[in-house]
Design a protein that fits this description.
9 helices, globular, single chain, 13 strands
Length: 343
């Protein structure tokens, strides 16, 4: 087995081999969406001063790529002890080449050790792209979510990784209508307004960092979040992004739901959506904003003809969003794990 590294964003031949691994792994998998590989290209080419450094490695046997993995080192990524943390993302390995996958993981760890990394999370690319599918392999791969064969978990476990967090999703469909009307005195909800994009970008950045700051979440700068929004804009349905405000029109809650464009890539009508984030600003004492935003979203989904909704990722220990999902008659869907290893 030989190991190669993609020589930067301009290495088209190397990047082609990196992408070929996934095509070989999923060639007979009807769930996989080939266009999901665009995330590899986007993140690898999005090189920003002071941002994450991504290195893509490939294992080759008999002249064919059989495994791949990305080393992601963000200068602000820290573990619970404040030590530098690295991430492994974009991992793929052919089933008959599991050992090559393990050897590749070991090579990635060596790179991270040399960079001072003390622990690794896998699979993780950024705050949005993370998690190894552990159940629900026959369910659709939805927008910005991962897809992988069941044997990947064994590969990582044999490399010494343990499950750090379990994450689930909930599924909803239009048969469960009507959506309950939920109001909170002194607060209102509205949808995203791209005509005031600068204002909305500021709200997005402030609330995301406030809601999720701490733990393994890496806070983003306004410029970083603006690039995230710019990636969403071509397919964003403004009425699926809900903002909760108080009487002074201060944003206190945010729900981000995306149309499942992976359906369109498969030649289907887009009738499904995925909630990728929901929460209220840290320290906010009142309850009910999450339910109010969910009610607003549910009514918009029904009015616009969406028939299915996936809500994810929900940590197994995070009970409030699970209770909210059950309140709206959600049923458990796919399950994911985030793995960790100390170096």
């Amino acid at each position: 087995m030989d190991l190669f590294e993609v020589d930067g964003p301009g290495d088209e031949a190397g990047l082609s081999q990196f992408l070929e691994v996934a095509r070989r792994v999923y060639q007979n998998n009807p769930v996989w969406v080939p266009e999901s590989e665009n995330a590899v290209i986007d993140r690898f080419q999005d090189v920003q001063p002071g941002g994450a450094v991504t290195r893509l490695l490939i294992a080759v046997e008999d002249g064919r790529p059989v495994a791949r993995c990305g080393v992601i080192m963000h200068p602000h990524a820290r573990d619970e002890h404040g030590n530098p943390q690295g991430w492994l993302g974009f991992f793929e390995a052919l089933e008959e080449h599991r050992q090559a996958g393990r050897d590749l993981i070991a090579a990635c760890e060596t790179i991270m050790k040399s960079g001072g990394v003390k622990s690794v999370l896998a699979p993780r690319v950024d705050n949005l792209l993370l998690g190894l599918l552990s159940a629900g392999f026959d369910l659709p791969q939805t927008v910005l979510s991962s897809c992988n064969p069941p044997y990947y978990l064994e590969i990582f476990q044999k490399c010494g990784y343990r499950v750090r967090e379990k994450m689930g999703s909930f599924l909803f469909n239009h048969h469960l209508a009507p959506v309950p009307e939920i109001k909170l005195p002194g607060f209102t909800t509205r949808h995203f307004d791209r005509a005031n994009l600068e204002r909305e970008a500021v709200i997005f950045n402030r609330l995301q960092n406030s809601i999720f700051g701490g733990g393994s979440y890496v806070s983003r700068t306004p410029d970083e979040d603006r690039r995230v929004i710019d990636r969403f804009l071509p397919f964003l349905d403004d009425e699926l992004v809900i903002i909760a405000e108080d009487r002074a029109e201060n944003a206190v809650g945010l729900l981000i739901c995306l149309p499942d464009i992976y359906q369109a890539f498969k030649g289907q009508a887009v009738t499904r959506a995925r909630i990728i984030s929901i929460g209220v600003t840290a320290g906010w004492p009142n309850k009910g904003a999450g339910a109010m935003m969910a009610s607003h979203l549910g009514k918009n989904l029904l009015r616009k003809g969406y028939r299915e909704l996936e809500a994810s990722w929900i940590l197994s220990a995070n009970l409030p969003p699970q209770n909210l999902a059950k309140r709206f008659k959600g049923t458990p869907g796919r399950e994911f794990v985030l793995l960790e290893k100390k170096l």
